[in-house]
Amino acid sequence: NEQRATSNEQRARMAEMTNRHHLNRESSGADSNSSDTLERSPSAVYKGGGYTEGRVKLKDKMSLMNQKSQMGSLDIDVKTGKSVEATKLTTFTGVFVPTVQNIMGIILFVRVPWITGQAGILQALVVVIGSCVTTIITSLSMGAVATNGVPQSGGCYSIIKNSLGPEFGGTVGLMLFLSNTFGVAMYILAFVEVFMNWNPGKILGDDCSFAEIDECAIGIRPLGAIVLFFLSFIVYIGIEYIKKTSLAFLFVVLLSVISIWLGVVTHSAANEGEGGSSDQWADSHGLVGMTGANLEKNLGPGYTYDEEECGGRAAGQCSFAVVLSIFFPAVTDPLAGSNLSGDLRTPQQSIPIGTILAVLVTTLVFCLQVVLVGGSVERETLLTDRTVVAILSWPVKELVFMGMCLSTMGAGLQSLAGAPRLLAAIAKDRLLPRFEIFEPPEGQEPRKALALITILSTACVMIGSLNAVAPYITMLFLTSYGIINGACAYLAYEQSPTFRPTWHFFDWRLSCLGALMCFSGMFFISELVAGICVVAAIALYLTIQRQINLDHKADTSSGGETQIKTDWRAGRRFQAARQSLLALKDGDLDFKYWRPFILFLCKVDKTDEGKYVPQKGMINLISQLMKRGKGLSIVAGVVEGEFADHVELLESGRKHLQEKLVEKKIEGFSEMVCARSIDDGHRFLLHSKGMGVLRPNTVMIGWPDEPATMEPSAMSTYCGLVKEVELSKKTLLICKGAVDFPENDAAPLEGFVDVWWVFDLFPANGLLLLLPYLLQKHRVWRHTTTRLFTVAPPETDLDELRSLVEGMVSSGGMVAKVKVITMSAEDAPRFADAAVSTPALHELEGRQRRFSETFDHLERNTLNTAASLATESHPHDTLSTMAEEEPSSILTMATSGLEAVLGGGGGGGEGDEATLGGGGGGGGEAEAKSDIEQGERERPSGKKTRRSSTVVDLNTLDADEHGSKLTALIGHYSGSSPLVIMTLPKKHANMTPAAWLTSVDTLASPLDRVIFVHESGQEKIQFFSE
């Protein structure tokens, strides 16, 4: 008794609060913990991992559901005070009836007899069944998509939007809105045509008919407008009246169909045993009843020339394609019930079941109509008399005329009821600019959208021609249904975990067939109109996509609440990425398939929402490298501190970094991590970023601005990071610049990009040459030229080395001016270790010999081309005599054989050949001259090696504070170059971090921009045939 009293009290409270938008939580009887959680204010909600405002709303909804279950499923409309369930539509009234009304329209009564007369019974059945198969497949697909979650108000739009995103949902919704707009006009014009031919009580005039329109008291357009406004008024007053009206309309339509079939029976019975009809009037009109002779006559086609019906499609000659295009509009709206999804009690159950049943029933009705009418009426009557089914009916023809009128009005009523709800749902989501005015207030009918469709339909009615409107309805519906079938096929094929329909009677192959039938049927009927509809659909998709992007950017920039932006292609991209990642094996990204995957350890401003701190324009350098490299990049920052204290900072910083990537047109990802120290964060990023084989192969960092003023601990940390990169077997790029790296829209640079190989041939396996190659594909660096300076020990044979380097650079597809220099290790102490070992030349000799046998054709073509520009001997020939040649004891610079192609420069440093005399290698100016004479000696081919007469005394160059003349030499030749790329000097074990930092800083001091490259030994870049 106490429970009943409590329940009654709760019901009384609910009745008193019907004008409120929510229920009193205290009356729910829920436990105290839930009440405490729900009563928290949004500002007090912990957003770092506990309850959020969204979760509070979810708990609120769950509490409301518990209340309703405890109170006997009481559901009250807050506006009217009536039970919501009482105003909702069932499967029969909300899906079956609207779908049957839309399909069993004027075509069933007027066009099916004519189609049967033209195509014959067999081909007419093919037309009906083929068209209905498309409808059935679409209904099966729609059933699957509709049961993937609970459909909301908005019909097909909301259903497709929830599955594939707003772009496809909006496109389908707007296409269906337009098709319903044209459909209302078509149904109204059909009603006018039937009503004028019926002319009950001669109310339109004694001689009024559709053929004699001038004799009617009111014309097509005024009568159509009157009927349209009448139907709009029914829709305006509410869904309850639509339900009642549509049931009455459908009842009369079904009676008229039954009367036609009864007429077939009565005429057939009258003919039995008499050899003809007992009704002479009926006999004279071709109503012979169901006879075997007449059935046999009408089985085959009898296409005629009909200017009125077939003139606009086939120059007046009727054909199978023509009759298919005329019939297809009858079955192009099987989803009228789904447009009322928000008004259904159980949309997940009602939409698939009601739609499939309606399509099957109407398909059976159409087939019976073809057989019965075709077998009972002579072909001539079928072709000439549009109202033959009314004459055929029993007991009175007025019943059929009334059924035809109400069928058109019922179809128009359903279109007027569904289209505004589509537009209101689209307006609510702001998919198109200025469409928000059509969003109705909460709980009210979409009357503004109804006014719009009434105006548009009135404009179409003013055309006054049914044949002019019908083709566009067919195409718009077919476009929408093709997209729906394609969406279902895509979702089913992807096997996404989020696609879990409760309707299992479908298959992605069947949906693909449905989409193919829809689109092929469009172009089969009319290529021009089909093309217009497809272009319109694409334009709508792009417009909605643009609007969504604009809204997302506006919300992001304003700092307001933004919805998660989804993309229907995300699932396919994930699958493609997954398959590609799993297919990648160790070594796949090596050798000729190597691409830059750069991890840029950038600086972020912790005090300014984690925004990117500019570092000499290094982010511009990444963008320019990615232009041709087609690689990836990760721009990562580190925030020092505890993660729980910087959650929002990490999110905002990641967002700002991603915006910077978009601004610089960098293809890559942003990342922000939190660590107890910046060094720990860099180590974490260095070792953890990537997935499987796809991991960064290159790390980019900036050079300290003032190394001399750094704290000793900071120096040790920086050197430790360099050592960490080396141990992780990744290439290290350190960027230093007296000036910033240029912006992407800066004026193109001119001059040379200089690459320095110091005591090491092909350091990093040629990466130093690949970097300028990639940069020069960008407009900023396009007008620069690559120069390669090769510094070798004094005992190196210059001719052999120069020919070897030229050949390999050329075979690697590089265009560079090669200059060879000899220098002793005493003049370049930073690279002394490389000068002592000098293994590179012998390694290249062996490599050339091995690979020339395997790839003889390719290598001979490439190497001979380059080597012939300087000498007639092949690098292989000169390599064999390298050990026998007397080593040169002076420092010589020789111009590449490609200089003839690139063009020469001015004095030293501008591309001319130069000879340096003196220096630590011993010898003076006389030795320089003798070596020039030796360079002029005849080669075996009889040609001379080009040498310059310019002599530079190395003794005139000053050594820096570290005892190196290489600094002055690099400054002399590359001081004016916009970029220099060279190997990073190694830090010896006995060097302090301060000594190494100041040494490298001094080496780069004469240069504007420099990229130091520290090789990992894992670089795999193809410069020759391997």
Structural summary, described in words:
- This protein has 1026 residues and is of the alpha/beta class.
- The chain contains 37 helices and 15 strands.
- The protein has a ten-stranded mixed beta sheet with strand order 5-4-1-6-7-15-14-8-9-10, sandwiched between helices.
- Helix 31 crosses helix 32.
- The protein starts with a helix and ends in a 12-residue tail after the last strand.
- About 16% of the residues have low confidence.
- How would you sum up the major sheet? 10 strands, mixed
What are the low-pLDDT stretches, counting only 5+ consecutive residues below 50?
18-57, 68-75, 77-82, 273-278, 847-952
Percent of residues in beta strands = 5-15%
Cα-atom radius of gyration? 42 Å
Number of helices: 37
Question: Summary?
Answer:
Helices cover 54% and strands 8% of the residues. The chain is α/β, with parallel strands linked by helices and 1026 residues long.
Keywords:
1026 residues; alpha/beta; ten-stranded mixed beta sheet; 37 helices; elongated
Furnish the topology, listing elements before pairings.
Blueprint: H1 2-16, H2 32-38, H3 53-70, H4 84-87, H5 91-103, H6 106-146, H7 156-164, H8 166-198, H9 220-237, H10 239-271, H11 280-284, H12 292-297, H13 307-314, H14 320-327, H15 347-376, H16 379-384, H17 388-392, H18 397-428, H19 447-461, H20 466-494, H21 508-525, H22 527-558, H23 570-583, E1 597-601, E2 603-605, E3 611-613, H24 618-629, E4 632-640, H25 647-663, E5 668-675, H26 678-688, E6 698-702, H27 712-727, E7 731-737, E8 751-758, H28 767-775, E9 784-792, H29 798-811, E10 816-822, H30 832-837, H31 840-854, H32 856-868, H33 875-880, E11 891-893, H34 899-902, E12 914-917, H35 925-935, E13 951-953, H36 966-974, E14 979-983, H37 993-1003, E15 1009-1014
Parallel strand pairs: 1-4, 1-6, 4-5, 6-7, 8-9, 8-14, 9-10, 12-13, 14-15
Antiparallel strand pairs: 2-3, 7-15, 11-12
Helix pairs in contact: 5-10, 5-15, 5-18, 6-14, 6-15, 6-20, 6-21, 7-8, 8-9, 8-18, 8-19, 8-20, 8-22, 9-10, 9-18, 9-19, 10-15, 10-18, 18-19, 20-21, 20-22, 21-22, 26-27, 29-32, 31-32
